[in-house]
Amino acid sequence: QVQLVESGGGLVQAGGSLRLSCAASGIILSFQDVDWYRQASGKQREWVATITHGGSTNYAHSVKGRFTISRDSAKNTAYLQMTSLKPEDTGVYHCKPVHYSGSWGPGTQVTVSS
Fold first, then answer.
1. DSSP code at position 108
2. Residues near 104 by Cβ (< 8 Å), separated by ≥ 6?
3. Which residues have C-beta within 8 Å of that of residue 10, sequence separation ≥ 6?
4. Distance of CA 82 to the CA centre of its chain
5. 19: how many CB neighbours lie within 10 A of its CB?
6. Tens place of pLDDT per residue across the chain (114 aa)
7. In angstroms, rounded to a whole number, what is the distance separating the alpha carbons of residues 37 and 18?
């Protein structure tokens, strides 16, 4: 059974940084392309970043240059390093392997105050 557990969110002032983690079990993240998404209250879920199984990365225009997606194969964990945070980055952040159609993890709340 696949489980995805996101953590690392919190309340931070604009300009601050956070590192989100996505710990996986039942699936080997290094064999997968993995996405991070976010969803602000009252808005649709938004794609944020992808890391491919080969290690290539891609970012939404709104976060490019500020966020970095990575993974640690030994820990079977994906990360999203977020810097220069803005209030519009506020939302619940989720990770998901691209080709995984099961349940999403609980997500982790990021709140950026102005």
1. E
2. 4, 94, 96
3. 18, 109, 110, 111
4. 9
5. 14
6. 899 999 999 999 999 999 999 999 999 999 999 999 999 999 999 999 999 999 999 999 999 999 999 999 999 999 999 999 999 999 999 999 999 998 999 999 999 999
7. 15
Q: Angle at Cα 71 formed by Cα 89 and Cα 14, nearest 5°?
A: 20
Dihedrals phi, psi of 89, to nearest 5 degrees: -85, -5
Question: Length of the chain, please?
Answer: 114
Tokens describing residue 105: 């993890």
Q: How far is CA 102 from the centre of its chain?
A: 17
